[in-house]
Amino acid sequence: MCFDTDSLPPIPVISGAAVSHDDLVLEAADGNRFAAFSATPQDAARVGIVVLPDVRGLYRFYEELALRLAERGFAAIAFDYFGRTAGVEKRGDDFDYMPHVQQTTPEGVQADVAAAVAHLHASGARSTFTLGFCFGGRNSWLAAAAGHELKGAIGFYGMPGERNGLPGPTQRADELAAPILALQAGADEHILPEHNAAFDEALTRAGVEHEVVVYDGAPHSFFDRKQEQFADASDDAWRRVLAFVERYS
Question: Is 0.85 topped by the overall pTM?
Answer without folding.
Answer: yes
